[in-house]
Amino acid sequence: MRVRVATTVLGITTALLALPACSTDTRGTEPAATSSGRTGKPTSGTTVLSPDALESRLLDEHDLGSGYLRKPERPAQHDDVTVIGCPALNELGGDAAIGGSLSFPRKAKASFTYGSGSSEVSEELYSASATELSDGIGRIFEAMTGCPAYQVVAGGTPIDMASQKLASPGGLGDEQWSQLLTASTAGRSTVVKQTAIRAGSLLLVVSGSPALVDRHLDKALDKATATS
């Protein structure tokens, strides 16, 4: 199975080009949350869920709290993408370097802005067999974190990318992956954290401003794996 994926990041090229010149959005404005103290692993079973079932398990504005506004989904973009300096990403396809969705057919996604709109957080849910999910997301994270620096040219715009593998959140789900991406162009930069957790036949991917990802990861996993 060839997984056509984009790493993360809330359409990172759009976010970059919308930022004021010479600005850096690294953390978001919301205070960091304290640990939830989770000690067990949530279980979601082996049943592959439908897109409608996944949609019902996404966080909404009520779950997130005040100050969040859901973004309408953008139509798919098909700009030419070239990756320079990372053969592993070239093998996955150019779209893997700039943002989008995994190709699993059973999926749901929601994106939100916070505060003034300069901070964002996105949640994606996928359902397939545990092996498919593990192989697909593992291959992508390995390719991205294996290239600490590379360049993406998307729609004629050069973007310098830097990736950093992060410690995975312990005690959550069956498998975890996490990374930090920095995208820079024309003196502007954006830092995006992406954390993925597989729990049985569910894959949760939370991306966005690092502070917002840390704050909402646990509640996203709780809702995604709820059985009632």
State the secondary-structure class.
alpha+beta
Number of strands: 10
Indicate the low-confidence ranges by residue numbers. 1-42
Radius of gyration: 17 Å
Layout of helices and strands:
Blueprint: H1 12-18, E1 24-25, H2 51-55, H3 61-64, E2 68-70, E3 81-84, H4 87-92, E4 107-114, E5 119-127, H5 130-145, E6 149-154, E7 157-165, E8 175-185, E9 188-199, E10 202-208, H6 210-224
Parallel strand pairs: 1-9
Antiparallel strand pairs: 2-4, 3-6, 4-5, 5-10, 6-7, 7-8, 8-9, 9-10
Features:
about 230 residues, 10-stranded mixed beta sheet, globular
Describe the structure.
The chain starts with 11 loop residues before the first helix and ends with a helix. The longest helix is centred in the middle third of the chain and has 16 residues. It is an alpha+beta fold. The N terminus is likely disordered. It contains six helices and ten strands. Strands 1, 2, 3, 4, 5, 6, 7, 8, 9 and 10 form a ten-stranded mixed sheet that branches.
Short structural summary:
The chain is an alpha+beta fold. It is built from six helices and ten strands; from the N terminus they run H-E-H-H-E-E-H-E-E-H-E-E-E-E-E-H.
